Amino acid sequence: MPRRDDLHSILIIGSGPIVIGQACEFDYSGVQACKALRQEGYRVVLINSNPATIMTDPAMADRTYVEPITPEAIRKVLVKERDLGMPVDAVLPTLGGQTALNVACQLWDDGVFQEFGVEMIGADRAVIHRAEDREEFKKVCERLGISTGVAKTVTTMEGALEFLKEIGLPAIIRPAFTLGGSGGGIAYNLEEFREIITRGLDASMIRQVQIDKSLLGWKEFELEVVRDRKDNCVIVCGIENFDPMGVHTGDSITVAPILTLTDKEYQALRDAAIAIMREVGVECGGSNVQFAVDPNPADGKFHFIAVEMNPRVSRSSALASKATGFPIAKIAAKLAIGYTLDELGNDITGTTSACFEPTIDYVVVKMPRWTFEKFPEADETLTTQMKSVGEAMAIGRTFKEALQKVVRSMEVKRFGLGLDRNDKWLAAMRAVEHQQLILDLSPGAVPGTGSVSGTGLRTADGQPIEWPIPLDRLTRKLAVPSQGRLYFIRYAMKMGWSVDTIFQHTKIDPFFLDQIRELVEFEDRLCSYSTLESVPRDVLFEAKQLGYSDPQLANLFLGSISTEAILHVREHRKRLGIEPVYKCVDTCAAEFEAITPYYYSTYESGFEVAGRSAPPEDEIRITDKPKVVIIGGGPNRIGQGIEFDYCCVHAALTARDMGFESVMINSNPETVSTDYDTSDLLFFEPLTLEDVLNIVERLEGGTGLQPLSKGVGLDDGQRAIDGGSGRRHSLQGRATRGLVHGLVVQFGGQTPLNLARGLVKAGCPIIGTSIDSIDLAEDRDRFDAMLTRLNLKRPESGIARSLAEAVGVANRIGYPVLVRPSYVLGGRGMEICSDEKTLRDYITNALEASDFEGAPVLIDKFLDGAVEVDVDVVADFATAGDPRAGSQAVICGVMQHIEHAGIHSGDSSCCVPPWSLPTKVEREIREIARNLAAELRVCGLMNVQMAVKDDEVYLLEVNPRASRTAPFVAKAKNVAWPAVAARCMLGESLEHQGVREVRDTGSYAVKAPVFPHKKFPGVDFVLGPEMRSTGEVMGIDVSMPVAYLKALLGAGIKLPREGGVFVSVRESDKVAIVDVVRSLMAMGFKVYTTDGTAAALKRHGLRPNVLPKIGTGARPNVLDLMSDGSIGLIINTPTRTGWQTDEGRIRATAVRSGVPMLTTVTAAAAAVRAIEALRAGDWDVAALQDYAAATAAMSIPAPVR
């Protein structure tokens, strides 16, 4: 069928903020859809609340609404577009995850789409109902003769308890219309069952949950399927879970293609998936169908059940697209507008149609990334409710190679399955060698009781050395799914456990366990050699084929994972001729040549042709075009999210625009940066020194790099690579030697920065702000010296590398102190210590948080009550020695935090422009930022954090690199600042770009954080200096209170218009809370407090309703009033943390009950203004293009991509 000409404007609904279960996979899908539809000539209207994504850049759509994804906001968008004379004709709701699907269903059910004549394309309401409604989906499968297991859908607790009598415990609970298994779980006892049913009914849009008889231990598979109106249907990719049923697929290692089914069994699942697609009625898009397979059927026959399907692009679609090169979201968007698969081409081959079912001749492994260290009280057990915040993907010729590569992609100080500094077995063996540990292996010893070093020896992640692992601990680690189970499987094998015994505990398929056993057996061979030089070439080559990394080999044979040790191993294997080759991701198992330069590395032997030996085939195509290499951010985690991918995408697009060949290296399958058409060359590889150097050398034609000489500093090395003169590079007369113009390490967050020193040492050219400048900002002594030269204030401070030094510094500057490790992201390990006891408890763990070996702890006097400010800067200063005049720094934006000082900037709401800073103070802040950029010779982006107390400005931190604030400021100012910065780094000055500061024009942009509270029930969430949010949203309006209101709505926080508010604040906040309470009472709210807060309010003439403290046992208390709906807002500034405290129970109950909660007085004051705006009347929406038009007459912004 041809494309539909009756449609003109199409609304795409985004997925909103990054949350656990719905991350940037849908940003990737939405970007593909926007690009595909605009290429077809459609006018695209986009609504999304997430400023961190490339999707909400104004150039991605004709109309970009950064507004809450709510029925109310979308209706306003439809009105606005109709009034402009360009009404929306259709909505595509299948590319924005469950958020988009649910809100579209609600708008249809409410008659809004019908009112405005908007057609649902991609999947209509009836299709969504049949797939998402658990009861309807069961009927679909019954009509097809496909089992769904023993299950029942219920809508009440009574119905749930009645069915439980039939099936018993454990039971699996799965709510309808949710994402990432939200609200679901596995109940092992009646109390858990009641709790999960309650949670699941609340989470479901239609208050429906399905209860399944336990399938724990069954194998889980999913198929990504695309179908069109002609009934062409292709299985894009089959994916197999490493973990058995009971672990959400987002929390399981997954493998493609499916490795443990026979062809006949796979065809049975394929036929069932296609039949389900037909019966549900999906005929213009992609879907995900999940199955469970009985691993040990009593009758020996193949038994499977259909678990569920998603009638939309799923979170696995991005993985399947990157694994095969088949762009599911792009194809789905084109099918939705009328095309069929046979009319669309395959982008990878350029010759076949999209009807060809992808076949891959390599293995893809995905591994989840958790951040339980941010939530020490959380239950780390993996269940049907997803808990991971990101993932990495690796490609290899075998499962073993891909598994080891994906482990070293995780950014957890592991470089493979074992043999690194976190390997308990290797650490114990080394301790024995050095007589630091004695293993009791005598005949009378109790096996597996464990031996713990009395010397305090620990692995790199801070775990004590113990070997053998105590039996009870090892058994628990194997039987209970958790983030570290993979490593304990290896430990069990090291202790002599058989594959069958481990299977009985884990229910992980014996095929995968046997693959790990083969790695363990190879380790024994490898460890039999005493030195690296004594390892035969064939054994070393086999090690590389099995995925063993240079850092693993360095640690095993040299006892170190330092840059020098890694480079030593590297040079040794290169002398032996052991180097990787690169293969194309080709979708058709090499039957058709791939035309897209999308690569993965592997190690292959040569072969013989007509009696002549030939080297292994390397499929990489090297041109003579100068290349810019962008190193991505790796897997998303708290503190390093999609914001850095946004910057990397702009770097790739800018390099291409400026005539360079852009090269992307990244391991994250969820992101736009790893789309095959974002860059000219894409390498899906781990972000380690070894893997990046391999790529750079190959891009140089395999000629190698010239390492820095001993005694040459990082900045000297960068200048030497730049040609010595500091002059700017151009395509003519380039100063760099070879084909690689330079590497961009400043846009991908901490991950590439941690590699930068080693890359420079190995001879790689780094462009932009020098590594020396970045180090200067982290080196406290050098940094303080710079501030002295600039006459800038900072809180009293010091550095410590030991507990004694830390106590001495704190006693000198006075408590409270803010302590943090250096070289970390997201405030990891950062804490406010009010006394020496707190400091002593903190220091040991803090020293383990730094990602830079030997990095000190930084200690600052805490400025209690100060206002924090972030400033983003773009500058075009070259490295030291640049003779040019006129270099400058431009302020991108000044962000005033809404929460008080002490809350991490990622967890604090903030506003552009500042709404309450005195003009004089703001001018001083801008001038300080410009001076710092000049002093640090910044070429690119820089973020500065300051605090204002009593109108004095104090400098807190400087990051001369891209910050997580960059996308937000870009949307607030309507300028793609990372693109501007990339042009500076590649030689185009700000003056030549015509860039100037964008004046504030009367609109306010407010960023609000989004937290994973509901994923960790019972955990006490208190804001502090360590970041905990997973994502963010933005509200924009001409009124600051309305902008803040929109931001809260986008974050899922619904402020009450009336009702009850509970207020309990710490002593230091009791004066500041008075005005907040007075305003609430003036609006008619019923304010409840406990005795202490009530007494303070009464002194100011306010008479709240007093509730008894929970600990007294008197009723009703605040928990009772939350449960019955009498309280709709909690204001609680914490004095103590922990779920066992009264405060902790209040906060945890608020999370469970969905009651909005504010934990700072400043946030409460802002929320009161937002409530006033909400009660005052209607609010409006506007596209970013509207705000850009309003500023056009006042300033000339830089080109927006």
Verbal overview:
- The protein has 1201 residues and is of the alpha/beta class.
- 35% of the residues lie in helices and 18% in strands.
- Strand 19 and strand 20 form a beta hairpin.
- Helix 16 packs across helix 17 (510-527) and helix 21 (642-657) packs across helix 31 (977-985).
- Mean pLDDT is 88; it is low at 442-455, 710-714, 716-736, 849-853, 880-885 and 1196-1201.
Q: Any key phrases for this structure?
A:
seven-stranded antiparallel beta sheet; 1201 residues; alpha/beta; single chain; 18% strand; 39 helices; globular; 35% helix
In spatial order, strands of the major sheet run 14-13-10-11-12-15-16
Helix proportion: 25-40%
Strand content: 15-25%
In whole angstroms, the N-to-C terminal distance is: 33 Å
Oligomeric organization of the protein chains: single chain
Mean pLDDT figure: 88
* Helix-and-strand structural type: alpha/beta
Shape: globular
Number of helices: 39
What low-confidence regions span 5 or more consecutive residues with pLDDT below 50? 442-455, 710-714, 716-736, 849-853, 880-885, 1196-1201
Radius of gyration: 29 Å
Record field, number of beta strands = 40
The main pleated sheet reads as: 7 strands, antiparallel
Task: Give a short synopsis of this structure.
With 1201 residues, this protein is of the alpha/beta class.
